[in-house]
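Usage

Read records sequentially. Each one opens with the input sequence:
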Amino acid sequence: MKQSDQQFGAGLKLSRRLSALAEWVPQGARLADIGTDHALLPVFLAGSGKVSMAIAGDVNAGPVEAAKRQVAEAGLAHAVSVRLGDGLAVVSPGEVDAVSIAGMGGSLMVRILDQGKASLEGVRTLILSPHVAEDAVRKWLTVHRYVIDRETLIEEDGVIYSVIRAIKVDDEAEAGEKAAQLYDLTLLAPRLPKVSPSLMYEMGPLLMREPTEVFHRKWEQEIAKRERVILQLSHTDAPEAAEKAKEWQEDVREIREVLACLPAEKRSSN
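and closes with the structure output:
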């Protein structure tokens, strides 16, 4: 789907990030969009016929009222249910088979997933877009037998966002085997014998396999952020500051090493 084509309902047009999420929702899915804001994603998907039904959930009353207006204007009240509630509390167990969450940090996303485990019964597909702490999300997915099958980076208005899709694997042994293949620490051997697990969770196992221009730009920006922190720590006399600066310097060294060993970057399709 091209963004220029993505107009349905009340003249609805999705952002690039929401377009990426929409593309990865399985055809015919029963979707819950958590933190839905104005319900743009559910309305687009229901209006285009890609989902059979959708739940648009938000914890704040203002966005819920806006979402209800959006749904009504699009004539989709029969297909999109707008609900006020915290996280996955708006979903009954077995009610949906796909969940999308975007527009928040990874730590909050993990809290929502943890607190809503009962509502994830029957959910095969998670489409997530954390804007920070992506490593926390990837670790949660691994622990709960959701295996990442797609990852991309979307640059919009000068900000780079991660989008991750993961599929539930019921068999524990199979899930462990797939996770081990996904997070293969010898991915860059022999140039780099081993990548640290923490960095692979942070950078993204599939993104590392096919690094784009946007990926390289994101990590150059991350290096710059870390170097600013190191500089700030160097002006602090506290003993723990020196130790923390060493840790950040080691992070920067490893990131640079990984970037130097990655396959030649590909032109971004974003």
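Summary fields computed downstream for this record:
- The longest strand covers residues 146-156.
- Residues 22 and 47 are 12 Å apart (CA to CA).
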